[in-house]
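Entry for shikimate-3-phosphate complex. Fields follow.
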Amino acid sequence: MIRTVERADRVEGAPAPPGDKSISHRAVLLNALASGSAHVSNFCEGDDRTAMLGCLRGLGVSIKRVRHTDERPCTDCFYVRGRGPNALREPDHVLNAGNSGTTMRLVAGLLAAQPFFSVISGDRSLRSRPMDRIVRPLAKMGANIMGRGQDALAPLAIRGGSLTGIEYALPVASAQLKSALLIAGLYARGRTTVIEPAPSRDHTERMLGAMGADVHSDWPAISVERSDLFAMDVRVPGDTSGAAFWMVLAACHPSARLRIGRVGMNPTRTGVVDALREMGARMTLENIHEDAGEPSADVVVESSELRGIEIGGDIIPRVIDEIPVLALAASLAEGRTVIRDAHELRVKESDRIAATVEGLRRLGASVDERSDGMVIEGGAALAGAAVDGHGDHRIAMTMGVAGAIASGRTTISGAEAASVSYPRFWEQLHEVTGGAVSGDAAG
Ligand code: S3P
């Protein structure tokens, strides 16, 4: 699907990102193992959620959509009936994680501990992403788990077993890997400890703690002992990564003001706020509050004069999903931006270093590709062009934001990929740009 975006004269309004994808996944998966039932509201829209719900249902978990609470209509609400830790059912089909790395890795951690046989697979992109990082430690814990070839690519075949806790130094700062091991650790004999090379998102630890697990975080070590969980209602905050598109659009457009409501502000996710502020973005946080142990705030962003910065080291896992859109901001900033230590971007839904460099160059930016990032000479006058979403939601949306800032008209092929995490993205871009988007969703 092709979307066309024209340069917007003015950017204003209050776009509402969907519920946070990472927190949504954990809210349904952990509640599925708990005793009791839970209500999860503002659950992420998008294809990735279909993948997680499908896998859990395939394991016998009852998850029902709820349209009303006693008091009011409920948007994106689900009711999860916990099965307790040991009542999952052997699936009679291959579990399908679709495009979702989080689904595959977290569910694999769970399957590693189940006394039955299962196979989990996904789409072409997911089947090319490295799974050896979870296969090795889960096998060390005692699971019988294998994938294709040296990188243990999906499909993964798993016969879970009785696991023993291990101490494991993560070779990469990956929240998906950490979470897979912590979930397996809920079932293991003895203690499971993961040691992180840099802080990655901590939603799993937070939620496990709030649900009664024996989890202990003394960074860089996070440990869990075999535990039973108690169901917990979760109101999912707005997706920090989805909000990042609006932050960059407002900061970079010369006539803009956006208010983005109730955005997740977990410090392990707010690298994009820190980076944009360091670049000089005019951004304020209002109405700060906390839901189910996760902080959130309304974010107000206005047109700003940005300058280039260095983005590398420990901030990378805190900003990993926002680097493509930050690279766009950098191409419009004054001076040079260097992005380094971001090798992980090469094994996301696409090779995001190559895809970002290609897209920005087509629009006229001056970008040099590096093995672990890129160097961007700012100050480009971007001009509309034909660009490709590379089948990757974050690349497609970055190009959409670029189109509203670049002169003329930008056409984005593969624009439908946005539905993986943000199905209403094009509609909301259309609204805040006063009608700059054409194509199916804009009507
Ligand atoms: C996620 C962790 C990140 C991120 C992904 C979601 C999660 O990957 O890129 O979109 O929900 O745990 P890492 O495993 O590289 O941290």
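NOTE: The two ends are 14 Å apart (CA to CA).
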